[in-house]
Amino acid sequence: MSNIANNPHHDSCPDYTLDVFQTLRKTFVDKGLTEGEAVNTLKGSWEAQNAIAKARWDQQEIERLEIEAEEARRAEEAAQLRKAAELEEAEAALKEERKKNRAKYLPVSAGVGMPDRPTVRFPSSVLQKLRKGDYVDLWYATDAGLTAMLQDVGSVQSQRLAVERDEDGLITYVPEVTLKASKALVRDEDLAWDQFPMAYMRLIPAMRDAGWESDRVNMFAKFWSSLHLHPWATALDSTGVDRHALLIYQAEQRRQWHLIVQNDHTVPDLTVINEFALHRARDEAMKQWQEKRMVQMESRMTAYARTQQAADSGRSRPSSNRRDRSDRRDRRDRRRSASPSSHRQSRPRSRSRSGSRSRNKRDFRSGAGSSPVFPPCAVCLGRHRHADIGNCQEKRTWDDKHTTVSQRHSGALTLIAGNKALCGDWNATRGCTSTSHPERHVCSGCSSLKHGAQDCPRAQPLSA
């Protein structure tokens, strides 16, 4: 049923006595009613229809008001939900803001002053690696590493991001200050020995705070302390090879441990010292020390040769001037005197001076370069200069009389027959007095058990 457009309560009954309703009255008069009865019948019919229309209108109004009330209620509920959602969103944003900028919203600890000494705190990039259980270089825990990472806190650089490729070649974004510090990174094996204990003692509590399991933290603490207290750490070693070997061993073992844990899903015990790997690390330390010593010797020899060359050049110029003056004097004497005796006396004197100078010059040159200054190579036994003496790949000895009996593989010295590992110190100038590996005390030049390569009869003699 259609809705009523106009309110029937405002309608009034028509005057049916008017001429306009005469035709309508005639309908009832023809049925035997009088004019008055016809008017009353029409009026009663209108009033009955008006009453029905009023009832429908009233019902329609009730329904409309109910609909409007329901719509208003729903609108109010939607507004309240929107307001609650906005409030919840604002609270979540504030919570995230407090979490992101925690230091900004920390309450002031009234009455608590600043500490006497600066607190050691690792930057977020290092803490993130520790939380993931990744390998962290000890350098970040040294004074130099902490200073490099923390000196730019709050600067514009600490806010900027830089592009970096990880080990898998994937592009990652890291803080620019972190990338800057990583370029100054010193690998574990290249640290100074006095940096090692301070670094691992700082890293152990950081690992614990990052959520590492206690058994792993204890394993690393025992591993580092055992190396710190190793006999090589306190040995009388002016070269530093023993302590450098411990640093190399620590770095290699720890990197290998992380790779095994990530790829093989097994957790080896680092506290079990691998003697073979430890001596291999010592061979590597000795190789690096010898290479450094070679560079120093070459530098000193070059400086000495330049000094002697400058001195020789300074002596030769005055001699040449004196010879020129002598020649001019001889020519002058010949012009002044026709006597041939004066001419003969002047010439031998000039030759004697020149010959003496030439002999002195030849003697100096022969004395400066007559004998090699390098120790024999452990492989080819030659004293000549090597491009990389720690990785000599010669197949024949220096004089081409013998086939080499040893070889270098990744810096390690081994016998070609049987691939037996040899002691690098035993075959170096430093020698080895250890009794823990007598089977490795074999000459790398002739396989003798009585001497090392430095005393091998096949080695190039100093006079060769």
Automatic annotation (TrEMBL):
Residues 304-370 are annotated as: Disordered. Residues 48-104 form a coiled coil. It comes from the Eukaryota. Residues 321-330 have a biased composition (Basic and acidic residues). Residues 344-362 have a biased composition (Basic residues). Keywords: Coiled coil. This is Uncharacterized protein.
